[in-house]
TrEMBL record:
Protein name as it appears in the record: Uncharacterized protein
Domain of life: Bacteria
Length: 295
């Protein structure tokens, strides 16, 4: 009889432990299966049809940083120019965006070129610092009989804040410069058609950092701030602020919320479940049944 009672007690003490372990496993599986999609792999997949699906944008390009044509993300900018010209476009990029710039140079087939040419795109931020491309064909060589050249540059993810000495991409304006880097002297001045498209993907809280800029790095921000300070000191009226670069459709990002908070909460839940599971494994079965009462 005592043996039967001991077995029943041991079974009753083991059942909750198995239930807790199963509950912890199910909770962990549900947490990772319902993870936010923004933290998945968001590497852009270049495709030739993206330029065609983009909306029509400006039909001219600037020849310097100050005269750069404004281009919104998702638009397609076109321009007609001559080989040897520098073409500039400017577009906005916000925190957490991984931007990809695509350019297509169409060369007229009816004009015989003397030699091959090399085309290149460069991207600069609002401080006019050249930003490196993480991957993509930033510079390509076109043969004498080539009809077009396709260039691609994927930038690093835009950060909300950075140290003054760093070269990290920050939210604000980004300039695209398209030009021919190597060309025979006899081919200078020949006409060509250029097409530029910009798109980006959200990387989510996996790349989020603390802090944020007081103002995005857009054209004229520093100059306008200096004018406002001078006007306040002199007691004069503020001059009307020039039209700034159009920001993203939903406005420039701000605030403390990122997807990282979801992972932080998920990690806390998993830690609590792990603690409960470890306690059930180490607490034992209680008082042994063979010990008489009062001992």
């Amino acid at each position: 009889m005592r043996t039967v009672l001991r077995r029943s007690r041991s079974l009753q003490s083991r059942r909750p432990r198995g239930r807790v372990a199963a509950g912890a496993a199910l909770a962990a599986a549900a947490l990772f299966t319902t993870a936010p999609p923004a933290l998945a792999d968001t590497s852009p997949s270049p495709s030739a049809s993206q330029n065609e699906e983009a909306e029509a944008g400006p039909t001219e390009a600037g020849t310097a940083f100050r005269t750069a044509a404004r281009l919104a993300q998702g638009q397609r900018g076109t321009a007609s120019a001559s080989t040897g010209d520098y073409l500039y476009w400017v577009f906005p990029a916000d925190t957490g965006q991984r931007t990809t710039v695509r350019a297509t140079v169409s060369l007229p087939a009816e004009q015989a070129r003397q030699s091959a040419s090399t085309w290149r795109i460069d991207v600069y931020d609002g401080l006019r610092r050249r930003q490196p491309c993480t991957y993509g064909l930033q510079e390509r060589r076109a043969a004498e009989d080539a009809a077009e050249v396709r260039l691609t540059c994927t930038l690093r993810t835009v950060r909300a804040f950075s140290e003054p000495w760093a070269n990290d991409p920050l939210p604000g304006a980004y300039y695209v410069r398209l030009t021919v880097s190597r060309l025979a002297a006899d081919d200078l001045g020949r006409p060509f058609q250029a097409e530029v498209a910009v798109d980006s993907q959200e990387t989510g809280g996996s790349t989020a950092v603390g802090g944020r800029l007081s103002e995005p790095l857009t054209p004229g921000v520093s100059a306008v701030s200096a004018e406002e300070e001078t006007a306040e000191e002199d007691g004069a009226e503020r001059a009307p602020r020039p039209a700034a670069l159009a920001g993203p459709e939903d406005g420039w990002s701000s605030g403390w919320w990122t997807d990282r908070w979801l992972w932080t909460a998920g990690g806390a839940v998993l830690a609590a479940l792990a603690g409960i599971f470890g306690y059930t494994l180490t607490r034992g079965n209680g008082r042994p049944g063979r010990v008489p009462p009062g001992v």
